[in-house]
Amino acid sequence: MPTYAETSDVVKNNIELKALGNTLANYDMCKSLAIQSGDKVMAYYYDEIHQLAMTETKLGSEVDKQVKIIKDGYDKASSVLNRINSAGLYQLCLNRFDSVSRQYYTTKLAKAQLEKTKRAKSELK
Questions:
Q1: Which residues contact 13 (CB under 8 A, 6 or more apart)?
Q2: 3-state SS class at 27
Q3: Is 25 exposed, middle or buried (CB count within 10 Å of its CB: 0-12, 13-18, 19+)?
Q4: Residues 34, 35, 41, 43: is their CA dihedral positive or negative?
Q5: Residue 90 CB: number of other CB atoms within 10 A?
Q6: Average pLDDT over residues 1-17
Q7: pTM for this model (two decimals)
Q8: How far apart are CA 20 and CA 72, in angstroms?
Q9: What was the pLDDT predicted at 38?
Q10: pLDDT tens for residues 14-59?
Q11: For residue 84, what is the DSSP state?
Q12: Which residue blocks in 38-98 are alpha helix, DSSP H?
């Protein structure tokens, strides 16, 4: 039988995994709204921080169970986010994307697009 400390760690981990699912859903919704509005820089920003969150996630030995918890959190958050007024949600996403981040990601996106163009040209040769 698990000890109180072991049970507490599992509960804490499950809460953190659900929160990660919520966070990922939020990033995806912001990215989607940015794409709909034609804001490529903001879409790039939210895509990158989504990828960063996934990269920083450390799953333990029960990966399938942990992925399911993340997915459940993601699905619940997506359901809630889809019921929110998209203009209001877009404004929240935009408010989190400050002007300094916009400058940084404008440059970063331009460099990424330039690299992509260079690769495409070299593949044609």
A1: 60, 66
A2: helix
A3: buried
A4: positive
A5: 20
A6: 67
A7: 0.79
A8: 10
A9: 96
A10: 899 999 999 999 999 999 999 999 999 999 999 999 999 988 887 7
A11: S
A12: 40-56, 63-83, 86-96
